[in-house]
C-alpha cells in the first residue's frame, strides 16, 4: 500500500472522529449532569464518577455531577433545563421529555425490580405480614414505590393498614431496618449492593415486583445535535473501558443501549399517579 494512500486513510479517520466531537467553543462551560437522588448524595457522586470521567475524556469538556436531597428538588431544576444531561428513572425521563423538552437517548439494560426488605432476623416473610408494621418509603413518585404499593393493593393491603415512614433515600430506608427503627423498607432490588457488606447481611428480601424499565439518560434540547451525538457515543462506549465496565457492574445497570423514542409513550401509564404525588397535575 502506498504511503499516500495510507496517509489519506488516516486523514479520513481523523476527520470522522473530529467531526463527531463537540467543539469546546460551542459550550463555553462545563457539562452539568443531574442524577436522580435514589441513593445518598455521597454514594451517588462516587458511584457515577466513572461516567463523569468517560464524558470528560471523550469530549474534552469538564463535567460536573449534581444530585439533590429529594426528588422534587432535582425535578424543579430539571424543569428549567438546569442540567445538560439527566440520569433519571424511566417514568420521570418521560415526564421531563413532555414537560421540559429533554431528549431521552440511553437506557441501562439490566432489569429493574421494586423490592421489600426486612431485617434478617425479622419474623416477616410475606406482604400480608406488613399489616400494622412500620414501612420505610422514599418519595412516593419513585417508580419502585409505585410498583410495590400497586402490589400491596392487589394483595388487599391498604395504605392505612401500614405505618408509612418517610426516608430521604434508599440507603437511609435500608439502614433504618438494620437499626430497628422500621420493620421493612421499599427499595430497588440492587440497593443492598450499595451498602457496606456488614449492613447488607442484616437485610433480607421478602418481595420483588414484576420487571420495570430501568433508568435512562436524557439530554437538554439546548444542546446541539452534534453535542448530543458526541455524548451518546461516549456513553455507549462505557462497556469498552475498564472504569466504565466496572461502573456498570457496581451499579448493577449491566449495560447501555440507545432508546427508541417511539417507545417512550409506553411510560405514560405511570404518569397520572406520579403527578399526583408530585402535586403537578
TrEMBL record:
It comes from the Bacteria. The keyword Plastid does not apply. Transmembrane segments: none annotated. Keywords: Signal. Coiled coil: none annotated. It holds the Pfam family Phosphonate-bd. Residues 1-25 form the signal peptide. This is PhnD/SsuA/transferrin family substrate-binding protein. It comes from Undibacterium jejuense.
Amino acid at each position: 500500500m502506498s504511503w499516500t494512500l495510507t496517509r489519506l486513510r488516516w486523514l479520513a479517520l481523523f476527520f470522522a472522529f473530529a467531526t463527531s466531537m463537540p467543539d469546546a467553543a460551542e459550550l463555553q462551560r462545563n457539562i452539568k449532569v443531574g442524577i436522580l437522588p435514589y441513593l445518598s448524595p455521597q454514594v451517588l457522586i462516587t458511584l457515577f464518577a466513572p461516567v463523569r470521567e468517560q464524558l470528560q475524556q471523550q469530549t474534552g469538556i469538564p463535567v460536573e455531577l449534581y444530585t439533590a436531597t429529594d426528588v422534587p428538588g432535582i425535578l424543579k431544576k430539571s424543569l428549567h433545563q438546569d442540567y445538560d444531561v439527566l440520569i433519571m428513572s424511566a417514568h420521570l425521563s418521560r415526564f421531563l421529555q413532555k414537560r421540559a423538552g429533554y431528549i431521552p437517548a440511553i437506557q441501562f439494560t439490566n432489569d429493574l425490580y421494586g423490592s421489600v426488605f426486612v431485617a434478617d432476623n425479622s419474623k416477616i416473610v410475606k406482604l400480608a405480614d406488613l399489616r400494622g408494621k412500620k414501612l420505610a418509603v422514599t418519595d412516593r413518585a419513585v417508580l419502585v414505590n409505585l410498583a410495590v404499593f400497586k402490589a400491596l393493593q392487589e394483595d388487599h393491603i391498604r395504605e392505612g393498614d401500614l405505618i408509612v415512614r418517610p426516608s430521604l433515600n434508599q440507603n437511609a430506608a435500608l439502614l433504618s431496618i438494620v437499626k430497628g427503627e422500621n420493620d421493612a423498607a421499599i427499595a430497588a432490588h440492587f440497593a443492598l449492593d450499595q451498602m457496606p457488606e456488614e449492613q447488607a447481611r442484616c437485610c433480607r428480601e421478602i418481595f420483588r415486583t414484576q420487571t420495570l424499565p430501568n433508568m435512562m439518560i436524557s439530554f437538554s434540547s439546548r444542546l446541539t445535535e452534534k453535542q448530543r451525538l458526541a455524548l451518546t457515543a461516549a456513553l455507549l462506549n462505557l462497556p469498552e473501558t475498564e472504569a466504565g465496565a466496572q461502573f456498570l457492574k457496581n451499579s448493577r445497570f449491566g449495560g447501555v443501549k440507545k432508546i427508541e423514542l417511539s417507545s417512550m409513550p409506553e411510560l405514560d401509564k405511570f404518569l397520572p399517579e406520579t403527578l399526583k404525588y408530585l402535586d403537578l397535575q
